[in-house]
Amino acid sequence: NEPILSGELRTRAISLVADDAVVIHVSDVVDLALDCFFPRICVGCGRIGSYICAPCEASLPFLVGSLCPKCGQPQISGILCPACATHSSHITAIRSVFRFEGTVRDAVHELKYRNLRAIAPALAGYIAVCMTKADITADVIVPVPLHRAHHKRRGYNQAALLAHEVGRVRGIPVLPHSLRRKGDGASQARTRNVEERRRNVQHAFECAGGIFANTSVLLIDDVCTTGATLESCATALRTAGATEVYALTVAREV
């Protein structure tokens, strides 16, 4: 059995008590206590120490290779995919860190359905790195709003948790309530095909008029399936004056 206290945690504990002259920060004490009583457990293999351990991280399904420059789906040619070539879009570009499978699927489900909000910083860290690699810049970050019924039942919006972490890492302001859902509508997870998903969210979002005038916006969400929700959000943001709308997600259905 692996020890509950990882090597890193033991080092932190020793550093906190070894020197009376060291100022013990409250956040360090809180983190230490949480690690002791609620240790980080890898969502992939159960190893204690981190939510995604090094061996599991090495096998994560990163979405790499040639992509459609618009929607971010794998595209061998590296040019617009057939869908993007035949449909106009308000999104400048969509990029996702991983394929939605394996340990990544488990991690997203832990965040989204099992109240493991503490994993948000780890997942947001991958998004922040992807933002740099994709050369995406933005003036503000906006999380995709959650259905009101889902928010009430869950108690939080996983996209907002990710957005705040990305904003903290990159030093970009986050506007969590600037984009709103007009109504609850049907759950996207229960729609049967791409066209139904598009119709379900076609006019589902709104912003205060002019709030994003001459602004580059970065949308953040957990998973991109067809891009229909992100497209509907982008339409509302463009109507509110946004000049560019990028979207980054943890994972992508491929």
Description:
The protein has 254 residues and is of the alpha/beta class. It contains 10 helices and 6 strands; from the N terminus they run H-H-H-H-E-H-H-E-H-H-E-H-E-E-H-E. The strands form 2 sheets. Strands 1-6-5-2 form a 4-stranded parallel sheet, with helices on both faces. Helix 10 links the parallel strand 5 (215-224) and strand 6. The two termini are 37 Å apart.
List the helices and strands and how they pair.
Elements: H1 7-17, H2 26-37, H3 54-58, H4 82-86, E1 93-99, H5 102-113, H6 120-133, E2 140-143, H7 148-154, H8 158-170, E3 179-181, H9 194-201, E4 205-207, E5 215-224, H10 228-239, E6 242-252
Parallel strand pairs: 1-6, 2-5, 5-6
Antiparallel strand pairs: 3-4
> How is the main sheet built?
4 strands, parallel
User: Which residues sit in consecutive blocks of at least 5 with pLDDT less than 50?
Assistant: 1-24
Main-sheet strand order equals 1-6-5-2
Q: Work out the helix count.
A: 10
Termini Cα gap: 37 Å
Our estimate of the beta-strand percent is: 5-15%
Q: What is the structural class?
A: alpha/beta
Whole-number radius of gyration?
20 Å
Query: Could you spell the SSE succession in H and E letters?
Result: HHHHEHHEHHEHEEHE
Record field, number of beta strands: 6
Oligomer: single chain
The helix content is 25-40%
The chain-level mean pLDDT equals 84
Shape: globular
